[in-house]
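Listing S7. Sequence submitted for prediction.
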Amino acid sequence: MDIVQVKGLTKRFGGIVALDGADFSARLGEVHALLGENGAGKSTFIQILSGALNHDGGDILVDGQDYRPVNPDEALGRGIAAVFQELSLVPDLSVEQNIWFRREPRTWLRTVDVSQMRQQTLELFERYHFPSIATTREVRNLTLAERQIVEVAKGLAKNPRILILDEATSALPASEATWLLSLARQLADEGRLVIFISHRMGEVRAIADRVSVFRNGSTVATHDAAAVSDDQIVTEMIGRQLARLYPERMDTATDRVALQVRDFSSPPMLNGVNFDLREGEVLGVGGLQGHGQREMFQSLFGADKALGSVTLWGKPVCFDTPRQALSGSEGIALVPEDRRGQGLLLTKSVRENLSLPVIRRFSHLGLLNQRKEAELVRETMKSLSIKADTPEQIAGTLSGGNQQKVIFGKMLMTQARVLLLYDPTRGVDVGTKGEIFQLMRQLASEGYAILFYSSDLPELVNVADRVMVLRSGRVARMLEGDDITEEEILRAAVFDSEAA
C-alpha cells in the first residue's frame, strides 16, 4: 500500500503557477526519485510535503488519512522530515547543537544535557557510518560539504519514516556522495521511504526503485527505474529531445597568456601552484575535493590571502579584496561554490542582484541612471534566458537554475574577461547544464579565459581544453588531448607523483 498518495496538487505564488494538478504516490521500503528541470515544481512539492508550505488545492493522504500540516513540526509528527539543498543550519552553534536544535535532551533541572546530546550524536554517527566531523565544531568553520553532512544528520536524528533528500549529494565529494547513496538504500531496506531528488542520472540509477518526472508543475510519468531509459526521462523532463548536452569542443585558445600563476601558496591547502591560463581557453581543475581547489579560486578572487605571483594579461596584480578583482576588462570574476550563501542577495530583486556589482556604471554624482540600468538588465536577462516574471522578481523565488543564471549575469556585467567558475552546474537541471556549457564555449570563442572546477568528472572530460589535477595543494598533472579521461584524472588525483 502507498504510504503517500497525492492527487491534483496545486500551488500558486501570485500569478506564478508552481504546481498544476500534480499526482504522486510512494510506498515504504523504496527509494523514489523525483526528477524534473529547475522550476518544474519539485521544490514546491517537497516543501508542501514537509510542512514548509501550504497547498491551495488537491488532496494528500499519508497512511490513508488526510494530510495538511501547517508547519514542519506537524509534518514530523506524521513521520516526515526533509534535508534541503539550501541549508538551514545556525552558523554560531556547534554540530551537535544544530542536529538537536529545539529538541535538545534535558536534565531534571530543564537545562540542556550536553553529555547526553553528545552521546546521542556519536551514536547516530556510528549507526549510519557518518564521515568524521568533530561534534563540537561550530558550523561556520565547516566546509559546504561538511555542512551538508550535518544537515543529513539533523534530518536522520528526527527518526522519520519518510525522509526527503533534496539534492543532498550536490555539495559532496565522490566518497561522501557514495556514502549518502548507500545510506539512502539502507534506510529503504529498513522499511522507510526515501524521496530522492538529484540531477545526476548516475545516482538515480544506483539507488532508485521508481522515478517520477515533473514538468511545468505537473506529473508527466512514473516508471520502474529499471524499465525506463535515460533518454526517455530527459525527454519527459524537458518536453523535447536534448540534442546535445556537451557542445562540440573547438580550439579557440591563443598563445596569449591571460592568467599566469607562480608559486601560489597558502599552507596547508595550497603549496606552490603553477599554471598558465590562455585567452580563449577553458582550463579544467580536477582532483579529490579538499585538495586546494576552493582555496585557489577564493585567493585568485581576492577573498582569501595567498603568497606567490599572479600576472593578469601581462601585468602583475595583487588583489586584496573581491572589489579589486572586479576591475573591468582587466579583472577577474567568480561564480562561487555556494550560490545562495555567496552569490546572491536572496531578498533583493533580480535587477538589484545583476546591477549591484557594477552600480557605478549607472550613476553619476550620486544619481542613478535608471533607464541605462534597466536596459542593461533586460539585455542580460534576455541573453541568458533568465526566467523571471519581471526584473523586480525576488531572486530567492527563482528556481535554482535561474538563480545560477543571475550569478552568471552579474559576472558578465562586470566585463571581466578572466572567469573563475567553481562547480557552476551544481544542483541545476540537465537543460540548464547544457545552456551553461554552451555559454562557456561561446565565451571562450570570444576571447574570455575560463578556469573551471567541477566535482563531476564527465563535465571536465567533455568541456575542458586541458585539465589541471590538484593533489595536496599542488598540480599533480596537466592533462591534454586524449589523456583527458575520467581514469587519468582519478589516477593523477590519487596515485601519480608527477608534478607539473
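Caption to Listing S7: primary sequence and predicted C-alpha cells for the chain studied. The CA atoms of residues 170 and 426 lie 6 Å apart. The longest strand covers residues 16-26.
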